[in-house]
Amino acid sequence: MRTQDLKLQLITISGIIFALAIFRLLPHLPNVSPVAAMALFGGAYFADKRMAFVVPFVALFLSDLVLGLHNSMIFVYAGFALTVAIGILLKNRISMTNTAFVMVVSSLLFFLLTNFGAWMTSGIYPQSFEGLLQSYVAGIPFFQNSLLGNLMFAAIIFGGYHLLQENVAVFKKQL
């Protein structure tokens, strides 16, 4: 593949990820965000594992600078990194079924990790097993929106990029 074609792929995939990060800044339903789908997409489509992490993380961080940071961000970023890693495992096995399955798994892991972080850092919940369970129960309504949004964005992003790969020769190979 020509260097120029690789650059076009890099710019396109990066552009998709940054556009998704900008989407976070627009009004939207609570916990319906493209964040998990952009992490999974970056992991699945960048051949260079460094780029798979760097581009989505930069996009996420820049949008977080606008939205604001909080004391449990380490758990959010750990969940995001886990989703990128799952995307890397998805690479070369991308299908509708596989993508939906790993998006559900990623969403569940992100929910467990970030609610654990809320329990650890917020001071809202007692520092006991019961308090941890309270944080998970309180997060269930948010998880429902998050899961539906993640599946919707994954379908749009992965489906749209698949159409691009099918119709534009430059995009036939992963970057």
TrEMBL record:
Task: Enumerate the UniProt keywords alphabetically.
Answer: Membrane, Transmembrane, Transmembrane helix
Regions crossing the membrane: 6-26, 74-90, 102-122, 142-164
* Protein's UniProt name: Rod shape-determining protein MreD
Taxonomic source organism = hydrothermal vent metagenome
